[in-house]
Structure formats: C-alpha cells, structure tokens
Design a protein that fits this description.
4-stranded antiparallel beta sheet; Aminopeptidase; alpha+beta; binds coenzyme A; about 150 residues
C-alpha cells in the first residue's frame, strides 16, 4: 500500500470487496481474485475496473492489480493481466483498456510495459481523488491498443 494514500481498515476492505462483487454483477467483469494453483489460494487481485472518476479519458475501463508482497517477482501479475486484457477486448468487447499509476510505482508501470501497453504522455493527469500537492497525485497513463491516429 506504499503508493496508496493510506491502508484500509477491515471495514473499508470489506466494503471494497463488496464493490468488486457488485461490479461483476453489474457488468460481468471486475477485479478477479488470483490463486496460485496448489500453492496459495488467494494472493491478491488482478482485473478490470470502470474508472470511478472523471478525466479527459473517461468513461474508460482500466486494468489493475494488487498482490501480497511475498508473491511479487514471479510474473503472476503479468500473466493474469494478459488474460484480463484479452477477456476485456475479446469477451466483453471493449475498444480500449487503460492503466495508470504514480511514476514512482515502477513495479506497476513495468507490468503495463510487459503487457505491451503504450505510454501516452499527452494523457498524463493529476488524480482527482488525491489532494493537490501530494506526491501521489501525478499519474502516468498507458493504453491498449494504441490510439488510432486522428484523420
Ligand atoms: C505492482 C505489482 C502488482 C507488480 O508485481 P510484480 O510481481 O512486480 O509483477 P509480475 O508478477 O508481473 O512479476 C514481474 C517480475 O517477476 C519476474 N519473473 C519471474 N518469473 C517470471 C515469469 N515466468 N514470467 C514473467 N516474469 C517473471 C520478472 O523478471 C519481474 O521481476 P523484476 O521486476 O525484478 O524484473 C506489485 O508490486 C503490487 O502488488 N504492488 C502493490 C499494489 C500496487 O501498487 N498496485 C498498483 C497500483 S497502480
């Protein structure tokens, strides 16, 4: 949670899980629980999420991830995110999937690059839910597939 503004209480975490369930009910996709078969039944989440704030690139669906620290460095997130992006494009029928993070969250934007997402500096933005001046407010932006050139 080093790149979030704060950790969650048990109640906040449960409410977050309920919102994830609701997104599956509402639109058939969401943040999937990630299991490492025969090893760990639940290491975190990877999946698709409707961007919950207004920005020049919204409405949009993002691919996102959060995995317990001891499971970093094994490629699980890239593997799971590749499936999530494919599901979004081929099954849900989305035209585009976006992702964004604070530039200091190197592990996160490295996943975006491994996925083949394209960095779009023109769409970098200040996160509206982070206070002005906070170091976590600037966000770099990636999209998949690349934006079509304007006519
Ligand atoms: C961001 C986050 C999900 C990335 O996790 P990660 O483990 O680095 O990502 P991956 O699962 O794709 O693993 C990639 C690493 O596994 C290594 N790896 C090992 N075996 C691999 C394999 N078979 N295939 C691919 N990569 C493999 C890669 O070399 C890479 O290591 P490196 O970063 O040292 O080069 C994780 O750091 C996290 O949960 N952070 C906290 C939550 C967060 O910040 N979320 C994002 C908010 S925007």
């Amino acid at each position: 949670m080093a790149h979030m503004q704060k950790t969650m209480s048990r109640e906040e975490s449960d409410a977050f899980a309920a919102r994830i369930e609701k997104e599956f009910d509402d639109c058939g996709f969401g943040l999937w629980a990630v299991e490492v078969p025969n090893h760990s039944p639940f290491i975190g989440f990877v999946g698709l999420h409707r961007v919950p704030f207004d920005a020049p690139f919204t409405p949009a669906v993002e691919v996102g991830w959060r995995i317990a620290r001891e499971h970093w460095g094994y490629g699980y997130v890239t593997e799971a995110a590749r499936c999530a992006v494919r599901y979004g494009l081929e099954v849900v029928g989305l035209d585009e999937i976006v992702s964004f993070t604070n530039p200091a969250n190197v592990r996160s934007w490295k996943v975006m690059e491994r996925l083949g997402m394209i960095r779009d500096p023109a769409s970098d933005f200040e996160h509206p839910n982070v206070p002005t001046g906070h170091w976590l407010r600037p966000h770099i932006f990636y999209r998949f597939p690349p934006a079509a050139p304007s006519p």
